[in-house]
Amino acid sequence: MFKKMLDGELTLKDTFWKFGIVGIFFLHLLLRIFGSMLAQKLNGVTILNYYRTYFNPLKMDTGMVLLTVIYLVLLGIFIFYCISVMIGTWRSSAQYERSLWLRHISRLVMAAIVFFSLTSVF
Questions:
Q1: Average pLDDT in the chain
Q2: Domain residue spans of the chain
Q3: CA nearest neighbour of 109 among 38, 20, 31
Q4: Can you give the pLDDT at residue 110?
Q5: What angle do CA 30, 68, 66 make, to 5 degrees?
Q6: What gap in Å lies between CA 18 and CA 15, rounded to an integer?
Q7: Which of 9, 79, 51, 93 has the alpha carbon at shortest distance from 1?
Q8: pTM listed for this prediction
Q9: DSSP 30-68
Q10: pLDDT digits (tens, 9 = 90+) for 73-116
């Protein structure tokens, strides 16, 4: 199903709403949950600064390492998913023949959603 979405074989409605709006919202929510759990453990210190100055491999906090790994993996998945949905929406809208306006509006709205969701994470 994901390959069909990426190739633009699904309808614009399915690609835009199911994969775009709902999928990005779900992954963004999951990323924010793990990000807030990680932020509680960091106590105002950045991830890079924590591992550069406070991290000790001999006395490591396994919960902190696990949360960091989960957060970074989710961040990578989220970036990959946003790029894939953008490509899938672009290809699916190219095949949409009902309305020229909806074709371009869906592209603009998806680009705005991807842009704002990625900037809110970083």
A1: 88
A2: 2-121
A3: 20
A4: 93
A5: 95
A6: 6
A7: 9
A8: 0.85
A9: HHHHHHHHHHHHHTT--HHHIIIII--GGG--HHHHHHH
A10: 999 999 999 999 999 999 998 888 888 898 899 999 999 999 99
